[in-house]
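Journal club prep — side note

Before the paper discussion, L.F. wants everyone to see what a predicted structure for a comparable chain looks like in token form. Sequence:
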Amino acid sequence: MKKIKILYILLKQQMGGAEIQLLSLLKNINKKKFEVYVGVIYQKEELEEEFKNIAGVELIYFNKKGKRDIKIYFKIAEFIRKNRIDLVQAFISHHHAYLPSIISGRSIPIGGIRSTYYNSKSAYDKLIRFRVPRLVSKLKRMILISNSHAGKDIYVTHKFSSEDIFVIPNGVDSEKFSKGNGQKIIKEFGLRNKVVLGMVSRIEEKKNHEELLEVFSEVQKKFSNLKLLIIGTGPYSSQLKKIALKKKLDSDVIFTGLRKDIPDFLSAMDIFVFPSKYPEGWPNVVGEAMCAGVPVISYPCGDVTHIIKSGYDGIIAEPNEESFKEHLISLIKNKQYRKKIGTNAKKTVLERFTIPKMVKNYEKIYFQLIKERI
């Protein structure tokens, strides 16, 4: 059987959830069965070397000039025709897959759903994300792959056929996140004999860090040995630091800034706190913390309810401060409870959310699409 030729469309080589998942897929997909190309829409960025160093993957830069550069679709279509591409898949911005597919007259388009936040009032946004691809899916076989059930639900409400949307949860790099050096972080930040809480995310209002500080302030009154690590950076960083200072939490809330040694931080934590009420898709940090054996307490945002079985491998609080605080206090008080939850969390990830499992699910869909076309 000849190799299936697949072109992945990537907007930018930046450090983001979609890009990290694509890297994992590219590194692990069966190169004996697939001939793999990656078309980068915009400029080279911080992950350029990561993509360049993957064996058996050819990089192409299409150099889109701006949002209204419609020539991009013809450039991609020409590449599809010239290289006889079978499948063209966009993890995000799926118009870069389905429009070139139509123009080229060949290849099966695959769109990607990576977020559940599709409430834009822009007529252009609604047209390009929903109306046109919905028409394409009716006229030409096109599917969507979502990394979350929540993302799929959004498209179903926009009248997409449920049968044409496949859910493949993100894969967690179990080798990377189960072997962090927590002692390094404990030494660096003076955390010995402390109960360490932590949150990893971009610091912006929608991630609800401010409410976390309020909860931490209340819980800290009951315990003298708590520390909170805020890992990441973002537009709300300076404001959040001012709030911590005003609440006199500056000595116990540690802002680490942007760090790449996330596995080490997770290994140093006793509890991972995730108070986001933003409509997340499949939150990578939740799966990564669980893989590290850290008990997670979260609100029921996005696919958290599909990942965590509350009370078994994590805690899902009711969406209010009081519930979050009560569950947090329970975890802080009971070390054995934390250990049990953390052990079960790691087991869940290793059974359900590994990279090999994710890759196998993608390959299964690819083979199915080619079989249907033949």
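L.F.'s comment for the group: The chain has a mean pLDDT of 92. Keep this in mind when we get to the figures.
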